Structures
1.
Amino acid sequence: MSDPKPTEHKPRTRRPSVAKTTQTRQAIVAAALDVFLERGFSDARMEDVAARAGVAKGTVYRYFTDKEALFEGVLREVIAVPLAHLTLLLPEPGESLRDAIWRAVLPIVRDMERSKRAPVFRLILAESSRFPALARMFRALVFDPVADMIQRLAQRGVETGELTTDALVKFPHLMIAPNMLAVLWNGVLDPEHPLDMEAMFAAHLDIVFGISEDTSSTKCHKPL
């Protein structure tokens, strides 16, 4: 009778740590952002993103199934996640609704260009006619949640008397439109004479809430 064969032990494969996985994903998203802004959505390639991130092309596909999914990841990380806190916005005790909006939105307005949110928005405007999925992503991840927040706050403003009409409840786009126009103006229409987004946002809030310059509780360049 022959001796039994020794049991073979396969070497265990160690899975990447959560920290390493997160780091790799962040590197891919950062590289994709740069590639999309440099080449546009249509001309960006997954292999270019991989090279920029310093990973294999297959690694990019492990995190994102295709270029649309990769762009969605960029949109989520660059715009949707930083804006997520707005959906929970409420005035603090003794704070007016107008000042609560100013407090929450002003840092975002100030950071539009440096954070690259403004260039991403301009890219979506430029290429959505050829790639409608980009506009759908923007609506679902960014515009609709912010519009819902505005409607909720506007309804509160109507109930407290801070707003004299329900126009913002019906058309939350009115609050978003000036900043979107400024992003388009500064990057496309007249970049040599850019609009002061912070001052424009303050002026728009004063118009919405019917506040004169002399009685405004928040001046255009009041530090946070």
2.
Amino acid sequence: MRAAVAALSAALDRLARGVILLAGAVLVALVVSLVWMVFGRYVLNDTPTWVEKAALLAILYVALPVAGVGVRERFHMAVELVLAALPAAPRAAVTIAADLALFALGFAMAQWGWALVENYRTFGIPLLGISQGWQYVPLVICGALTMLFVAEHLLRRLYGLPPLGRPASD
């Protein structure tokens, strides 16, 4: 079973890298579109009004999925300071409790994010011509990634594999 968990971790490592690469590409597109907006406004005297709405949407698609990856890499929502102050016995229990709470948060984000996607899919985003539901898809992605990566942490702990990300205090 340890080999299966290690294989899962390898696959999730590729997924996390893919999310980071995709977020980087979206950031590059965001910068290019903002340059276009400035050029249009000050050189062409014809501001492309869609850029501002697209930039707001792009920021959601960068920040939220990367936050899910941050859970895996332990650079987001970590309780390292509290863990370091605890004796070894309660440290393990608090770590598991924090992971379970984070899993529940990911579940809520995915579930309620999907409800928002469904509720707003019939409304359009002005200037972009797409469904407002697309604004909430990153919330679903973040919640799903959070649950997936927390489950990976729990499985690694259960089968005695070393923790991922920053060195854990346990």
3.
Amino acid sequence: MPKAWEKLDLQGAGVQSLQIRLQKLQKKSLWGYLYWCLSPFGAHRFYLEQSWAWVFPLVSVAILVLAFLGLTWEAVGLAVILCAVALWDLSRIGLWISAYNKALRKASWFAKQTPTAPANYQGRADNGEKPTQWQRELQDYTRTKESERAGHPAANAPAKKGFAPGQRRLSFAEQELLLAEMAKSPKSAVEKKPPDSAQK
């Protein structure tokens, strides 16, 4: 879909409006990795709404406090642990984004529930009135469509098959059979029997 259509919000309740809202709410991989650069503050975990995000800034403050008090080895140990966890998070960001977006899509789709019928509703009532012209046309169209089956024409379809106007089109298998017969027959026979005369 072109970008211009993706940004055109029709403010309806259809699929297109839902997709636009989802695009705005979904987490982006680029932002997830950019926020990881601020991992000492836990920015990537806050962005992805992951648990224990508050631990990162707390440990960072603890490292600064230990370094200020002169406890260098303790500060270095905490920094190594923090870096190890940050590297592990880096390998999980893609999975977290996919899981978050999937859960968001499921919640959005299941939230679109069909309204229930009114109380004591028992179907459309037949009041015995004659249908209007548009209702008759709709009924005729519905009957025609319901009479059709996949690969079978309707009952009132033309019986003659071919490529000329007013003829019913050949199926794909029939066209292949016709082409095979034309390839096997001599050139003079093909010229005498054009494809428009194919019948079944």
4.
Amino acid sequence: MLARVAPFAAALWWGSLTAVGFMVVPLLFKFLPTPAMAGHMAARLFTAQTWVSVACGVVLLLVSRSNRPSALSGRAQAALVFIVLGMLLALLIEFAVAPRIVARENLRLWHGAGSVMYAVQWLCAAAVLWRITAEPREPS
């Protein structure tokens, strides 16, 4: 069962980051009547995305710490740095960057920082998905 949980969690993490950040939020700004409405809804979506990211990261960490030896746990171990970094970025965006954007404090700086952090989190999730779904190597 663990062999199926980790790829599912990694795919959910990467897929949700992709859908929210690169499709849904840009569409909000295109089709909602005002940027303020779009920004308010985007903030709610990014908060939800934070908790999806954290939940997927926790599942992946639990799988990587499984007592059962398997090829999957070895691949999850190899992705550990990316899992932790991605979760840390999600929490930093939520609790350090987002409040400053909502307060409209130096909006250009914090929006840019949040966008870069989101993109790096997306890359971390992609690296986790890539490593977890890799074909197991045959022993040499």
